[in-house]
Design a protein that fits this description.
With 163 residues, the protein is α+β, with helices and mostly antiparallel strands. Helices cover 27% and strands 31% of the residues. The strands form 2 sheets. Strands 4-3-7-8-9-6-5 form a 7-stranded antiparallel sheet. A two-stranded antiparallel ribbon has the order 1-2. The termini are far apart. 24% of the residues are buried.
Length: 163
């Protein structure tokens, strides 16, 4: 079953508050975030990505990510449950760690796709800069990391909340 991308429909209809189907009111997907959450999307190194198996079992993984203001970019190992799940079900969630006391929570729902036409991680300067120390600390070069994590995943947010 192909899931229509509500973000694309919103963009085509002009975005913002309004309707795209004549009856459903919406806001831009990331309007639910406070300014602290927006900053964390730039600064944090780890986000939790949850996909769903064909049997309905959620599968959560800590991943490195890049947020460009429109989409998230994640690189994955090939042949993982994460990539198999996304092929079958585009719906995913992303979560940043909270403060351990019920605050600083950031949850994002979205539609994921494997973007095999995207550049390798070492060809994305923002991604390379963000993870330079982590890549070196794990004894990779930018090229060896890109070879180990060759599957680009793009996630388009459909809803976001923070508190």
């Amino acid at each position: 079953m192909k899931v229509q991308n509500p973000v694309r429909m919103r963009k085509e209809s002009g975005g913002g508050v309004g309707t795209w189907d004549g009856k459903t009111e919406y806001r831009r997907p990331m309007d639910g975030l406070n300014s602290r959450a927006e900053q964390r999307l730039q600064d944090e190194l780890i986000i939790w990505l949850t996909t769903v198996s064909p049997a309905g079992q959620p599968q959560t993984s800590a991943v490195w990510f890049l947020w460009d203001g429109e989409e998230f970019l994640v690189y994955s190992l090939a042949g993982t449950a994460r990539t198999r799940n996304i092929k079958r079900n585009q719906r995913v969630s992303l979560n940043l760690d909270g403060d351990g006391r019920g605050g600083s929570v950031v949850t994002i729902e979205g539609l994921a796709r494997l973007d095999l036409d995207a550049p390798a991680s070492n060809e994305v300067p923002e991604y390379s800069a963000k993870y330079r120390e982590k890549i070196a600390g794990n004894r990779w070069t930018p090229e060896s990391f890109a070879a180990d994590y060759p599957i680009p995943i793009r996630i388009t947010p459909t809803r976001a909340r923070s508190w």
